[in-house]
Amino acid sequence: MALDELSVVLKARQLVNEVSPTIFPVDVNPFLKQANAVVKEQGDLAENEPGWSFQSNGKHYICINKFDNAERKRFTVFHELAHIILGLPSDHSSPTWSYAKKSINEIWCDIFAAELLLPYNLFKPFVDRSDYSLDAIGKLAMQFEASFTATGSRYAAVAAGPCAFILAEKGIVRYPSRSPVLRGARIWIPPKMELPMGSVSARVRNGKAIDGAEEIDPELWIANWNRDGVMLEEARHFPKRDQTLALLWLEEDELPEPGLRDRRTHEEEEQGLAELDGILPWPGKRRRR
Ligand SMILES: [Zn+2]
């Protein structure tokens, strides 16, 4: 089977099912056992090199940077497990925190790692109970000992309502993660777009202090909107890496009626991830006006 995002997610979920973690932060050890892998701390890795892995006599060795913090080490172990299980070669030529030049294999390993760190069954109930806010995402990141970006992307990926988590670097959107309802409604946030002028994200990147969410025109973010409406946006900027993180959400009745939805299809949306989450793209009980 050729590898694509769907098969990466399926393989991760298969492994999560085998290990069936019941508590969080998720214990990495049963996953290591399942993959016949052990972890070694290494003291001579470069500052930007979180880890690598190799095989010897049928056993996998994951070497992690001794000087990284605990959260980073956890992610590295899960990321290297992905390389082992998916059989994908490493391309760690650009710094792992950077999304600007990340290769597709590395993105898949990150997605795989996030599935293990934030398992659907454990994570989703917390997402469903939370209010949309970056604070809520930050709290979940701490509870699950995962990075803010991984938690935010996964938050949108499993959220029941219409929301999206945006990761931008150097003012360019690198990774828009949309909730199943948004994907189902064919709401399209173009990757590689510039942070839209007037958006909260663009303003916080320009040094404006904005606390909490603001109402904005959905057209700022959504390429195929073409109607009235209100969207909420909350954003934070991290100047050191020039990264901007944003949460976008709207009321469900702001979404276009099914008949009016843009019928264009996009590569990313052909992969059936919405169905995988067990959430139908459109709730059956939705009434037509
Ligand atoms: Zn890698």
Structure summary:
By secondary structure, this protein is α+β, with helices and mostly antiparallel strands. The protein is 34% helix and 18% strand.
What features would you describe in this structure?
The protein is an alpha+beta fold and 289 residues long. The protein folds into two domains: 5-106, no CATH class; 120-276, Beta-Lactamase (2-Layer Sandwich). It contains ten helices and eight strands. Strands 5-4-8-7-6 form a five-stranded antiparallel beta sheet. The chain has a three-stranded mixed beta sheet with strand order 1-3-2. Strand 7 and strand 8 form a beta hairpin. Helix 3 crosses helix 4. The longest helix has 17 residues, at 70-86. The N and C termini lie far apart (44 Å). It binds zinc ion (ZN). Zinc ion (ZN) binds at residues 79, 83, 90, 92, 106, 109.
